[in-house]
Amino acid sequence: MTTTVCTGASAAAFPSFASYVRTRGPVLLRTARSLTSNACDAEDLLQTALTKTYLAWERIEDHKALDGYVRRALVNTRTSQWRKRKIDEFVCEELPEPDPVPVPDPAERQVLRDTLWRAVLRLPDRQRAMVVLRYYEDLSEAQTAEVLGVSVGTVKSAVSRALGKLREDPELAHAA
């Protein structure tokens, strides 16, 4: 639990409060969790209730009944939060939701992938190897050169020529 209501000078003012929070905090957090929809809201609720308890610490006569006091603060705070939440509804001619973004058809994407792969297969062996290593295997130019035993310049020029051929491929022009 990350409840840190009292630190420094405040802890010195009420060491019994700091001790109470350390010992009873986990139990009170479970209570707060039962009042909220998620753990973060529960921590915030408990923090607020413990702050209220800290401010009233000197006025609380029976420290044996602190759990009841904090639980009541939890319930009252949660009730106040619930009452303050206001939801306004407005009548309008058009729905405020945006139009759904069209999702590309997976079949069309697969057709494009297949067409691209067939075009890559039509490249000369050396260019195809370099394109596959650079773009399918995601190797750098230096790594591709090392794998194929050629210079980086050779990889750059061969890949450039291969991409030019792919741009001119008639099947790819129709698929895009």
Q: What does this protein look like?
A:
16% of the residues are buried. α2 packs across α4 (66-84) and α7 (141-148) packs across α8. It is elongated, with a radius of gyration of 34 Å. The longest helix has 21 residues, at 15-35. Helices cover 69% and strands 0% of the residues. With 176 residues, it is mostly helical. It has helices at 9-13, 15-35, 39-55, 66-84, 106-121, 125-136, 141-148, 152-168, 170-175.
List keywords for this structure.
DNA-binding; elongated; 176 residues; 9 helices; RNA polymerase sigma-70 factor (Sigma-E family); 0% strand; mainly alpha
Q: What layout of secondary structure does this protein have?
A:
Elements: H1 9-13, H2 15-35, H3 39-55, H4 66-84, H5 106-121, H6 125-136, H7 141-148, H8 152-168, H9 170-175
Helix pairs in contact: 2-3, 2-4, 3-4, 6-7, 6-8, 7-8
Brief summary:
By secondary structure, the chain is mainly alpha-helical. The protein has helices spanning 9-13, 15-35, 39-55, 66-84, 106-121, 125-136, 141-148, 152-168, 170-175.
Instruction: Describe the global form.
Output: elongated
The whole-number mean of residue pLDDT values reads 85
| First and last CA, distance | 56 Å
The counted number of beta strands is: 0
Briefly note the structural class of the backbone.
mainly alpha
Fraction in beta strands:
under 5%
Main beta-sheet strand count, sense and barrel state: none
Low-pLDDT stretches:
1-11
Determine the number of helices (DSSP H or I, runs of at least 4 residues): 9
H/E series: HHHHHHHHH
Nearest-angstrom radius of gyration?
Answer: 34 Å
